[in-house]
Sequence to fold (392 residues):
Amino acid sequence: MQRKTFALIDGDQLKENVEQIKNKYPDYQYYIGVVKNNAYHHGIKSILNLIEGGINYLAVSSLEEVLQIRKYHSSIPILCLEPIPLEFIDDVLNANITLTVESLEYLENLLKIDLYTNLKVHLKIDSGMHRLGLTSKEECEEAVKKLKKHSKIKLEGIYSHFATLGITDPHWDHQVASFLEITSKIDLKEIPIVHFGRSATLVEHPKLSFCNGIRLGIVMYGFSQSRKDNPGFRSRLRILKRKYLQKKNQCSITFLENDLHLKTAFSLYSSIMSVRKVTKGDVVGYNTFVVKEDGYIYTLPIGYADGVTQSFKEVSIDHQRYPIVSDAMDMIMIFGKDRKPIGTQVEIFGEDISISEVCRNLNQNAYHLLNQISNRVVRVHKTKNEKEEIYY
Ligand SMILES: Cc1ncc(COP(=O)(O)O)c(C=O)c1O
Fold:
């Protein structure tokens, strides 16, 4: 690794997270790991750790993502959450992909194809997100009837997706009601896998009795969304507001707390590439920082092309914080009063500066932050048995 900037991925932690989730929520048959965008940018090797933890189905966004995963995992079932254009049907069959059927038009085109081998499909229901899926009970009934008649296509699953957490608004309840209405003319029990929830709805809501599958995304990567971890004033205020809105909107019961003790598995490091002495009044970088007291500017080989900007605010060296005073496409500069040697490791986030803290500084959520750390950053995948550098 020439550029001393890397994301350290803790594979053992990912495995442990899934084990904990399964222990706490043991009533599902299918734990579908959402591993799109290279497992939320943790890297392809992380998928093995998630499977070791108990994930028994995967979900991704595209054919290309499945093909990548198939190089390592030939037999685990993989659902593509977006409809794959049917001109790629041969690739779908070769890679043994479970297709999402999200409209009657798509289904009719699929039925016209002379399939050379069996194909599994999941029907997607639009229960209120208005993004993908069948929208009425007539459409749903017709789709199921047509699929039942086909000898090579197996209707293996049916699913929908929650648009909100449903903790202060009535949308979660509306979506459940809408799903049951749209599927009211078919027998859900005849379909082997029924899945609806995602990470937040798993921990916030009771299990839906008609579901035997759950799609796990951000929670596997260490984000448990428990409200009790933060005892501060703002948090208490938020809880009061939540209780008030729940009552006002007549939301069904939700859980304020969960005792998952998950940890994030993604840390980001860079190192000091250059150092210079500066004195009060010097202007640093693209004129972004005027030095207020004598000290040192340290330049790190990480910039906004890697997903890191001045808005991250601080970095940590040997458990001490240093402000980021300037950024550019490939480098950031930090200021310190003590002299540090070239090569000193710098934590961008990880042990000392949590991902949640950076998210607060950036005013964005963990999904955005994880996915913005670009592929240029080498992933160093580590477990207790091995360490491997992964380049894209
Ligand atoms: C259809 C679908 N299901 C599940 C997930 C996983 O969501 P989460 O990370 O909130 O668990 C996603 C994430 O984007 C999704 O699009």
Observations:
- The chain has a mean pLDDT of 95.
- The longest strand covers residues 320-327.
- Residues 34, 81, 161, 198-200, 215-219 surround pyridoxal-5'-phosphate (CB under 6 Å).
